[in-house]
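Narrative of accomplishments. A recurring question from our advisory board has been how the design workflow behaves on a single, concrete structure rather than in aggregate. To address it, we present the structure tokens for one chain from the evaluation set, followed by the sequence designed for it. No filtering or post-editing was applied between the two.
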């Protein structure tokens, strides 16, 4: 009797661990949220290629807004704050569009590269022109 109970407990614990692992994987790699690894990687790689230097993140913010357009109903926006080699801070943005406010996501890392903007170019222009 005790042997059956131990097996049942082990099975339940195993299922809970597997379920937790799946949720953690989806949270980091699929769902649109602050901790999505694809958005962070897309920003860092794009900025590195665009400006020929390495950047590191200072902070990350995430928000979802309802849009007025007919197609996608929501825009999911990551705002990253980064410093350059001289310590000047600027922002970079990733936008992904979806049909639902929560629970939306995307496994395709390449899709995150399509909607990246940053303020670093403007910062450099303002510094050179003295604005």
């Amino acid at each position: 009797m005790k042997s059956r109970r131990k097996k049942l407990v082990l099975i339940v614990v195993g299922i809970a661990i597997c379920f937790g692992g799946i949720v953690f994987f989806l949270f980091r790699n699929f769902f649109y949220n602050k901790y999505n690894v694809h958005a962070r990687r897309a920003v860092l790689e794009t900025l590195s290629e665009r400006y020929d230097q390495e950047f590191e993140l200072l902070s990350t913010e995430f928000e979802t807004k309802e849009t007025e357009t007919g197609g996608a109903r929501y825009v999911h926006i990551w705002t990253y704050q980064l410093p350059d080699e001289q310590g000047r801070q600027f922002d970079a943005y990733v936008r992904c569009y979806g049909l639902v406010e929560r629970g939306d996501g995307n496994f395709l890392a390449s899709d995150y590269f399509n909607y990246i903007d940053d303020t670093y170019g403007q910062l450099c222009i303002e510094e050179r022109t003295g604005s």
